[in-house]
Batch of 2 targets.
Target 1
Amino acid sequence: MPVPQIHIRPGHPDFLDLPWDRPISRWSDPRLVDMPTGIHRHPVVFVAYEEGVYAIKELPVRLATHEFETLRALSERTNRSARPAGLVVRSWIDPGEECSGAVITRFVDYAFPYRELVSGGGFGSRRTQMLDAFAGLLVELHLSGCFWGDCSLSNVLYRYDAGAIEAVMVDAETSRLHDELTRGQRYEDLDIMQVNLAGDMADIAASQGYDLDEADLELGFDITDRYRLLWKELTADLVIRADERYRIRERIRRLNDLGFAVDDVDMTPEGSSQRVRISVRVGGRTFHSQRLREIAGIDASENQARQILSDVAYHEAKYGERGEDRSPTGKAVATMRWRMTQFEPFTNRIAHLRPDIDPIQGYCDYLNFRYNLATERQQDVDSDQAFEEWIDAGMPGFDPELTSQEPETLR
Ligand SMILES: Nc1ncnc2c1ncn2[C@@H]1O[C@H](COP(=O)(O)OP(=O)(O)O)[C@@H](O)[C@H]1O
Ligand SMILES: [Mg+2]
């Protein structure tokens, strides 16, 4: 049996036990698992290992190599794309053949294809969440120098992220990485997205039995509008007087509120006036998730982390002993107590009751439920009681109509 050349990134299985002598469409391996996918050109299968589930996509060697290398370089710049695990070359097959190469990516946990979000002839009450998800994803990819070249509904995976939807890029076959994108490149990418999404929305309408004139052909244009505002908010320079330094702090706080970490701040005098031009370089949308990882060792996506951090602060304020040590050590103890009495027992219960859902998202759903109860009753609700009531109510999630991550300028 011929053995392929396999290049593996550290931390993943070697995949050598798979039947590489046959095309993946003809595999009947015990490791194969069925997972829902978007619409795709190349054959894709999923395999389960102790380390996790992986997606294997078969395509000609040149394309496979390009996709693997792009995903690898991109994963050093942002966490908004699928993680590449391996590149496979079947050297006994003509490199132009479809099954001569394969790219292996880590399955994106708890992610699902867009079909799960469709309601009516489009995205119904989730439309705003989709606008935010796509605009946010494109802005982040563009900030990291990635020209996508094929942004479409099927080339993205979706995950619930507290009251928002997080989008993850999966298909990088057409992508190119640059140090920085020009405005022309960014707008070309947006044009491609608009055309792709119009086609996708027409297909959704047709598949749901709606007429073409009822299709949401505007979705891509609305994403572009939101993208522009967000891009401007993140990249526009600020010109201040030398005695207005508080405005720099304000600007950084605003960017952090949007979830963006700030990497660098540059200050340049404006000519001979007393004015200073401030330009801020933003990093990824990981401000709260980084903070939560630092203080509690919990990995969550950005909006989940923001909400969980509020819960930590709430518990600290409510249950902290009066006059308790407010030093870093005192705070670390309070966080540990929160983790042991709240986060761990509740997420364990969620995982036990609903192994199919992301327990961290479940925890955010419960926090949102507790908040709504308290607002309704005009008083704090005890955590254990709120948790039981949330379970009894069928573990409801966020109301998509009430959630949006839009920049303030859009409100
Ligand atoms: N790492 C992954 N995790 C989860 N699903 C994935 C992953 N990679 C691919 N998929 C699923 O497979 C589908 C096809 O992958 P894609 O790379 O877009 O292939 P193609 O190049 O044929 O369009 C996607 O729509 C997605 O649903
Ligand atoms: Mg694709």
Target 2
Amino acid sequence: MDKIVILATLVGALSVTPVSAKEFQNHTNMMNHGDGHLMDMDGGMVMGQNTDTLPGGCDKIAATKEITVRAGHKFSEKFPGTMYAFDQQEFQFEPCTKLTVHFINEDDIRHQWMMHGLPKYLYPKGMFHLEVSGPGEVSGTLILPPGDKTYLVHCDIAQHMEKGMKAQLKVGKGAEDLPSIPGVTTSVFPDDYSGKPYSAEEAAANAAPVTDSSTPSPVPTPASSANGAETDTGLSGTTVIGIALGFLLAPILAKRYKGMSPGEIVAALIESAKRSLKQIVSLLSGIFSKSGTAKTSASIKK
Ligand SMILES: [Cu+2]
């Protein structure tokens, strides 16, 4: 008889236990582990928070901004072939902006808002990272570096970025667009719903026009390999010239970073050298490809 009572109590207790979705949780009481790392034992996390250290090359905080970004399956519905998405795919801010991101997860699973490519002397592993497991909200702050650059923002949980949870954040004018941003840039591997077996030639022929010239073409076309020999030598030449010019520019750039600690100067120098190197290389490769086209058309005339 006792056994029946115990069993009935157990069954009753189990049926009362809520097995429904987790309730929305605001992760405002996280433990500060230092170095911008905050977390609680309930799935809320901030990494790379920086509320007061100016990045090298910033004289002051240029602006203070707050944004709310939502993450969830429902935001992917307008992008065929995706499963997850943020509610916005593109952000743009002035260099040296102090940015607070309120990140809201609307799914019952784990999502992140992870920004990459930040200067590593200030942000551990070059990352700023917000994370919420299950429905809830977490907020974090960072100070954006100077210069025009496009940063990748994504969810790093396996397959979440590949399935749509990807965005870009432009500082200043930004740099080249990133590929496969849902609704913003061309997909590197466009989805095919025809049911036919994959053919590389057909995919190349049907590829959507690439809006940005810097977006890599998914499949090399036979035409480009025909001019290949000249393009190859041109590229290695521009790289060498670019590196040489980069070294020449370095002492001039050093003047701009007076009064900074040696670590900050080195980091800021590397950042600017990289930027100018990129600009020089793209400028020179532009000239080379133009002269290449001129030669080709001249030889056709002959
Ligand atoms: Cu995710």
